[in-house]
Structures are given as C-alpha cells and as structure tokens.
Input
Amino acid sequence: MTTPQSLIARLASPDSTGRTEADIQSDIKTLLTTDDFDLDTPRLEEQIGDGSYRRIDIVTGATVIEVKKRLTNESADADYINQLADYVTTRMSQDGSRYNGILTDGKTWWLFEQSPRRGLLRPAQHLRACPWSYRGRAY
Output
C-alpha cells in the first residue's frame, strides 16, 4: 500500500477540529505500515513493563514514538521530552539494547538518540512535515 494523500494531509494538520492524540497515533501507525516504510507492524499502547501502568504510544523495532496533540518547541514541551527519555531509558535497561525516541504531533517530528557515553537523551534531528510534499510527491 502506498501512502494515501488523505493520510499525509491529516498528519500535516494536527490542529484540525476534533482530532485527538489517538487519531494521530492511528494515522502514524498506518503511515508506518505503508510500503514506503516497510516496517514490522508497529505496536500501539505497549505497557512499559516497569510495574507501572504507563504505556508507550507506538513501538516499532528499537524506536519508541510518543504522540502529542501539539508540539511547540523544546522548552515548552520539556515534560514530553522527559517522558520520552524515561521510556527510552527504561527500555534500554530492560533488554540492554539501544533505542531511539521520536516525539511527534504528526506534523513536527523530533528524533532523539541516547548518548552512549553519558546516557542522556539528546536531540538528533527535528523535521517539519509539509502537506504538499512527501517523498517527492506533490499533494
């Protein structure tokens, strides 16, 4: 399945009336299962497994994705970044593997990597999706 134009348009408009985090989460899962990405089936709402009832929004491979309704900037969204850092750190300590974290509202995508030496989650890449361009296709 190739990525439908309507999916890209929805992800590029997280502030649309009536859109919830669950809607954005579902659209991201759909996006990740298209032929454009060819990923293993992403798992939604996976329990962190540390005895708490916290859940990771989306897990695919060694990537933890936290979905929020709207992202503004790193300072304003520090609590979200700390939440993601905690999830990534917990996952790494559970199985000894390296994990990356993505914080997104569907339009803005912030990739964070765990520093091997210092163990801190640090920003690696910040991307902003445009509704009119995806993998060279105009919408």
